[in-house]
Amino acid sequence: MRHFGIANAAEKLNIPCGICMNMAAAFFQLGVLPEKSASLDRILRKINPCSNNKKLAVGIYYPYQDSDTDIEMLREIREATKIKNSIIMGDFNYPHIDWIHVTSGREAEIKFLNGLNDCFLEQLVQEPTRGEAILDLVLSGVQDQVQDITVTGPLGNSDHNITTFNIPVVGRTPQQSSTLAFNFKKGNYTKMRRLVKQKLKGTVTRAKSLKAAWKLFKDTIIEAELKCIPQIKKHSKRPKRESPWLNHHVKEAVRDKKVSFKKWKSNPSEINRKEHKHCQIKCKNVIRKAKKDFEEQLAKNSKRNNKMFFKYIRSRKPAKKPVGPLDDRAIKGAIKDDKAIAEK
Fold first, then answer.
1. Where in the numbering of this chain does the Endonuclease/exonuclease/phosphatase domain appear (predicted)?
2. Cα–chain-centroid distance for residue 141?
3. Do residues 83 and 194 share a domain?
């Protein structure tokens, strides 16, 4: 994903990690990564999404279930909630908690609920995320900080449903581009040729030097452009690029999968569950076939259309990871400027 960065606990700790965070590079600041732990994967990132320098802490946790991990996880959640605006999410794997009445009969789950109450955190997901259980949680300590939580179908072969939500941001508005660009498709080139011919007739030969002749020619062309070619506002937003193998069969299969999932959620019967499973398998097979057919056709035409071939090969390569920010103990801070990072 262009202009997005991956935050992973393994980037500073030399350990394997099963979670990562993908966010816009413009929001990145120094991450707060706790010390190495063999029983808990976690990432905590401080970001600044608002123009008023209001910090927001976003954390992802994946604990391995044992008593020591529960104690360590609750301790780290307390540390994370010291930042006023904090959102914590992850697969906490507490299937027996009744989130409607916030009760449980298991000792570990009761300790977890008591820990959330001590930190004044509210659990916001109210729909099952795996089977009939709510395992993937979103915790927030500020009212209305997280909005529009929805649970949709699983991604690929995962048995967990996708949970999406919005974080309203105050003060950061999308910048409207004020740059003007020539719309050459609607230019009046007959008029432009006539103006250039009238202006340059007999004047170029009287120029005292080559530099003066070039300046006269350039000014004439620019003046004729302004008079004969209309200008439009240049849009800074890039158009959404679709995958080259995405055809109408894939779109139809994805649409059927989403419809069957909504039908199953609204009426959780065995017939609807089997129908959704059938649509899920069909969608996966259609995507595989579309990719295979596209790549075979691309390989056949590689000699005639080598640009398309190498463009697709480059798109399949992993994105290069940017360098920085760097920690500088001398100034007790972070170096974020590209030039300063290169010099360091």
1. 60-162
2. 24
3. no
d(CA 138, CA 135): 10
pTM exceeds cut of 0.70: no
Residue 236 backbone dihedrals phi, psi, to 5 degrees: -85, -20
Which residue, among 38, 53, 138, 128, has the nearest Cα to 87 in the 3D structure?
138
pLDDT digits (tens, 9 = 90+) for 146-166: 888 888 888 777 888 888 888
d(CA 296, CA 290): 10
130-145 pLDDT per residue, tens: 888 888 888 888 877 8
Does residue 256 sit within a domain? yes
Residue 232: pLDDT over 80: yes
The verdict on 22 and 157 lying in the same domain is yes
Task: Return the closest-CA partner of residue 136 out of 145, 148, 149.
Answer: 149
Q: Specify the amino acid at residue 11.
A: E
Q: Which residue has the tokens 């909504």?
A: 262
In a domain, 312, yes or no: no
pLDDT in tens, 260-290: 988 988 888 899 889 988 999 999 999 999 9
Q: What is the pLDDT of residue 288?
A: 92
Q: Tokens standing for 297?
A: 């056709």
Residues 164 and 257 both lie in one domain: no
How many separate domains does the chain show?
A: 3
Counting other chains too, the contacts that 76-84 makes at CB distance below 8 Å and 24 or more residues apart are 76/34, 76/40, 76/42, 77/115, 77/116, 77/119, 77/121, 77/139, 78/115, 78/118, 78/119, 79/34, 80/44, 81/119, 81/120, 81/121, 81/141, 83/46, 83/55, 83/56, 83/57, 84/55, 84/142
In a domain, 319, yes or no: no
CA-based nearest residue to 151, from 162, 137, 142: 162
Q: Is 131 in the same domain as 268? A: no
Q: Tell the burial category of 204 from Cβ atoms under 10 Å away from its Cβ (0-12, 13-18, 19+).
A: middle
pLDDT at position 176 over 70: no
Q: In percent, how much of the chain has pLDDT > 90?
A: 15
